[in-house]
Structures are given as structure tokens and as C-alpha cells.
Design goal:
It is built from 8 helices and 15 strands. By secondary structure, the protein is of the alpha/beta class.
Length: about 325
Amino acid sequence: MKVIYCGCGRFGIDSLNALKASNHQLVHIITHPEKQAGRGRKLRANDVEQWAVQNNIPFIAIEDINSTQGVELVKKLAPDLLVVIAFGQKISPEIIGIPAKGAINVHGSLLPKYRGAAPINRAIINGETETGISIITLAQKMDAGEILAQAKIKIGDDDTADTIHDALAKLAAPVLIETIDKIQAGKAVYTKQDNSEATSAPKLKKEDGIIDFNQSAAAIHNKVRGLWPWPGAAACFVSAKNNKKCPVTIARTKITEEQSRNGRAGLVNAGFDVLCGIGSLKILEIKPHGGKLMDFKSFLNGRAGVAGDFFVPLEENGR
């Protein structure tokens, strides 16, 4: 089948490679324009545009696929199917109606759970032990289309949003090709979602990363994992010796005591674990604001850290 791919994120690169290697024809890619990135704020092409250039696939970078330019392009190419992955633009019924077989989307959750922009992050933050991908038809209500295929993976205790993102991207590729094959053969099964079981996964904001050490060690551990690498679980380290403050992002933790604690939440104890509302955490890796990722011991050594140092939420530091 003739396929147009719509996307801009790294999540779809494995699927693009699979599409290119399949019996289907990837005729065009629609993606986002270049955006400023990095300290120099230079324009940078997204991952999908870079892939298109490297693989000699025609593409267009467009702000709105529903514009006259977008509609006319899709009509001209007359695809059999639209494949949408990590695109970030709502696609109009007019465009969905152009391909003979409609449009399908790869979503990073086991729908109807975690509809929205941050399904991987929210699943980990909520302590889920499994997740997966769903291939669905495009619908006007976000992530509410009919399900054509799903596949699952386990979420390990040390998995982060980054590791699960990459695992799901790899998982999705063969399932996508199998689904397209079934659509072509007229053997695809379309199953309506149970809307009563739907949960939401709204877009992340920086303030979502603020750690409240009155929460349990398990909840904070899940937040750290679910928000790495962006926006990161953030707090403010305070030295007991001189009251000097240092905003930090906590990158990796381990639960060390789940049942009890003695002392205020956020306190660094004699074993250099951090006390929480329930239990305590060992910080394994930490990133000072404006600095590099390092192990917690090196961080403390650089600040003459002692038992009695403590962490507070960033908002208590006026940030």
C-alpha cells in the first residue's frame, strides 16, 4: 500500500525503518518545521526530518497539516493509508477521509488507559508494572479510535520513561507492519474502546517534577523514574553547615526502607539516605542545576555533605 507518514518524534524511527523495509511504499513524510534547540538556540530539524533526509524519502515540514497546502498535498499523493506517530497535530476529518484505508496511529499505552500526550511518563509515575502500545484508527476525540492491535511489556523497578520509550518504539515496529498487512488483506479487526475505562495522561509541565518528600519513598521513586530525562524530578538541597542551597534534579533512586522513618521528611540520615513520608530513598544519581549528572557521593563530597543536610521542594526556595 502507498503510505504517508505523519510524525516528528524519535518514538517513530523504528517504525519508519520497518516501513521502509516492508512491501509497502512510503511515498512521503509530513513533519514539523525546524525549531530552536540547545544553548545556541540554533534551528534544528526533528528526528523524523533527519531520518527522511538520510533515507532519501520526500518530506514536507509544515505548521498545520490541515492547511490548504496540507490537504492538496495529501490529495495529490492519493495514499492508501496515513500512519501517524508522535505527530502533535490534530488531523481533520477531511484529511482522514482522503486515504482509501483511512488513518492509523501508534500510541504508547494499553488504551483506553492513558489517553493523552504523556502515557509512558504517567504509567511509571502511577506505579504500573506493565504497559504497551496500541494501534488505533484516528478519531476526533483524542486517542479514542478503534483498536486494531496491542502488545505489552513489563515495567521493571529501575525502568525510566527513557528506557520504556525506547522499548515501546522497538515493540511497535513489527506490530505496525503486521497491522498494515491485515488492513491491505481485509483481515483487520476493529474493536471499539470501552470509554468507561479511559484514563488521561496530560502533557507534562516543569512543575510536575517538584518533589514533595512527605510522599512515600515508593511514590517519589516512581516520580523520579517517570520524569527522567524530562522534566526531571526536582528539589533543593540545603547544607546543614552553612544553609547554602542548590537546586537539583534527582535522576536515579532506590527504595531502602518502606515502612518507617525517624526525622523530618527530606532529611539526609547517617546512612546518607533521604527520609520520606513513608520509608527512605537512596539517591544514586543527581544533577545540580547547570551542572553534570553525577553520583550522590560525589555530589556530597563537593559540598562537604553531612548527615543533617536536607532537601526541600523548589517552591520553598522561591523558585
